[in-house]
Description:
The termini are far apart. By secondary structure, the chain is mostly beta strands. The protein has one helix spanning 11-28; strands at residues 38-43, 46-52, 61-66, 69-76, 95-102, 113-117, 120-126.
Amino acid sequence: MSIVKWTPFFSEFDDMEESMNSMLPSVRGKQFGFTPAIDMYEEKDNIIVETQLGGIDLENVDISIENNVLCLKGESEKKSEIDEKNYYRKEIRRGSFYRSVSLPTKVDGDSAKAVNDGGILRISVPKAPEVKPKTIKIENKK
């Protein structure tokens, strides 16, 4: 009898999700796209979202913020003329992509800025003024 490691946080479901995600490109055939990975963190009064879009013409990338949801969409074109049957491995994903992510707090989407730095797209979105902590001074009455 073998020992099965107990994992209380449903890692079996995580493994199943990874398996399904890895199969999706082959299921969808030649029309597949990809979902860019992101890093999101807080920096003073801004929410920062970073994603790697190396090799993608940024003219083909649209960024929008609506109801505190950041949406990235665009397209990566394949420029080589190698026939499909000549590949030994084909892991670089091409095609259209779409990613939407809920931002963790209310933001001022009109003041957002995006900068490309060596293939890393960095989107800086200021927090809405009502979200920023306010300091209240205590008055002494004598």
